[in-house]
Amino acid sequence: MSIRAFNIFSIILILVWIWADKYLSIGAPSYGWLLLIYVSVLFCGSYFIRMGFFLKSICSVKTNEKWIALSFDDGPAGPTSHILDILKENEAEAAFFCIGKKISGNEELIKRMVSDGHIIGNHSFSHHPFFDFFSSGKMLTDMIEMNQLVKDITGHSPRFFRPPYGVTNPNLKKAVMKGGFISIGWSIRSYDTVIKNQYRLLNKIIPALKPGAILLLHDSSETTVAVLPELLKVIRHKGYQIVRLDKMVNLNPYD
Ligand SMILES: [Zn+2]
């Protein structure tokens, strides 16, 4: 359900309830509870990108093929070169949703991502803690700044955008639409920035593998470096093929 449909549904529900109270004496609605339910739905809608509540995002692909797409957020960072080494050794291609402000001084990593066969997506310039409170204009300026950096280094302007923190709202929808971006979510959230135990991390990811899944990892996480060789081995051992995100979703990753 979209936010507009939800708002209309909420207003109709309240009006029907008030009418029913007046003419059928069902009891006055508890406005505090209604407000709490309304706010809870909005919170879930903005936090769970897979709901597509505020903004439709590609979070997986419907397929019977045993395909998995790897995505890495929040780089370039310290562990990125190790991640690139491991991917190269295992002949796996991935999507890197980079943060613009981290690119300065890491231009070689960006070039290497492309020359190693990976794609680069936009994860905003600032990844600001209050990004979701920005106006749509400010969001778009931030996103365009990131794209310009990637274009200056690689010649490519990313179309794939991953919302910072995975949070979506109406302003972000406007910015994504206006900028011609394609919002990309995930179907498997690894929590690799939170889970430090390698065994637990693998156990979080492996049972969730499904055909057409998009796996969210972070190239800013040392734990990810530690588990990646084993993870790639298990993914293939289970008969899955690692397919680059743009190929799996069948969309051009650059303008
Ligand atoms: Zn992030």
Explain what the structure shows.
The mean pLDDT is about 95. This protein is about 45% helix and about 10% strand. The chain has 2 domains: about 5-45, no CATH class; about 65-250, Glycoside hydrolase/deacetylase (TIM Barrel). The strands form 2 sheets. Strands 1, 2, 3, 6, 7 and 8 form a 6-stranded parallel beta sheet that branches. The chain has a two-stranded parallel sheet with strand order 4-5. Helix 3 (about 80-90) runs parallel beside helix 8 (about 220-235) and helix 5 (about 135-155) crosses helix 6 (about 170-180). Strand 1 (about 65-75), helix 3 (about 80-90) and strand 2 (about 95-100) form a beta-alpha-beta unit. It contains 9 helices and 8 strands. The protein is of the alpha/beta class and about 260 residues long. The protein binds zinc ion. The site of zinc ion (ZN) has 5 residues, from loops.
* The CATH architecture of the largest domain: Alpha-Beta Barrel
- Poorly predicted spans: none
Rounded mean pLDDT is 94
| Distance N to C terminus | 30 Å
CATH topology of the largest domain: TIM Barrel
Instruction: List cofactors, ions and other ligands.
Output: zinc ion
